Amino acid sequence: MSSLLKQRLAYDATFDCVQCGYCLPACPTYETMESETHSPRGRINLVKMVAEGKAEIDDLREPIEKCLGCMACTTVCPTNVQYGKILESAQDVIEDSTEKRRSGRFVEDFLFNAFFPSTKWMDVLGNATWLFQKSGLDQRINDWDWLPLHLNEFASALPSIPSPKERKSRATRYVRTRPATAKVGFFKGCVMDSVFFESNQNTIELLLRSGAEVVLPESQTCCGALHGHAGKAEKAVELAKENIRAFEAEAFDYIVNNAGGCGAKLIEYPHLFEEGSAWKERAIAFSDHVVDISQVLVEMDRLTFTRPLEETVTYQPSCHMQHVQKVIEPPLAMLEKVPGLQLEELERPDFCCGSAGIYNIVNYEESMKILDVKMGDVSRTNAGSVVTCNPGCLLQMKLGIKREGMEDRMDAVHLVDLLMRAEPRMK
């Protein structure tokens, strides 16, 4: 059994960790939980012990489930430990060993296999949210403490949703300038497109004003990040194949996304396939074209901003955008282009906000402790807006602002929405 576990648990990769402790100050859960088992090196050591038969899988479960997967440890690690590979292997083993009640398994199967990968279900989510807001119930939901998983708090932080008619009228191909400066395939995401539809539209508009032709492949689906983090490796591979096929239908200069977590998963597609396989090569060709919206706007450099924004902002980087995609400077470069805007940097921008996909839902208490640390840093800036590049971060920061009672003087905004407020036009 231990030899099989060694293969499944990325056992060989654990030896790259020399237990130096450089990861400890970078790890949010180590700071807030104050336990070695909730640090990267502690989790790696547990994985090694389970693979060697010196500990049980159940000993691994809680530390792994409480890991944010923010990958901040990988940035500071002096020996380049492949923590993401070790983490996902542990999640996969834990998932296979978990016995779930039939009702729980049904709900989970529906969410991961039917709900997130389905454009139709995402439309239902967007339409239902619009109806909920239109009815005025969103003004009363704060008092609905009976809702499970603190959903009343998260629902109150949602942005205004466009009507079903407006959402349905969106085209799948846009071009405004001939010849186009670039041909862009836009990865719209699942939750991003249903709940943050306006941010997606602003992304498309920024690309159009930069002179690009923008295409939204109709057969694209969920990126698979949530599935990978939940140990559902087979489904993550299936979704990767669907997206690769969808974007292979045309030749694109860029495959653009506007969600840090999604972009991180997209560029990691090659890791899902065996060396030398045809799918590996196709995944590499796909990921080589994947860029964040901030990257392509900086590279094309076709926008000038005509409306000064006389306000102070701070920037909360997405962990996966920073530590996996390695996209750090482009969002800051775009903020610098906006006249009148003052940027007050965080003291600890690398510290996670505690969103981490659905971590803040399934590990609410732990997530809020991490958020409270982040909000202490945010409050110090006295900014009027917190700028983010990821939907999960955006909702989490809105929730943090509400928890701190700062709604009257601060808001959270996606980078693309802020840029559109500055009225960009082509140079």
Automatic annotation (TrEMBL):
Its cofactor is [4Fe-4S] cluster. One of its GO terms (molecular function) is glycolate dehydrogenase activity. It catalyses: glycolate + A = glyoxylate + AH2; (R)-lactate + A = pyruvate + AH2. It comes from the Bacteria. Binds 2 [4Fe-4S] clusters. Component of a complex that catalyzes the oxidation of glycolate to glyoxylate. This is Glycolate oxidase iron-sulfur subunit.
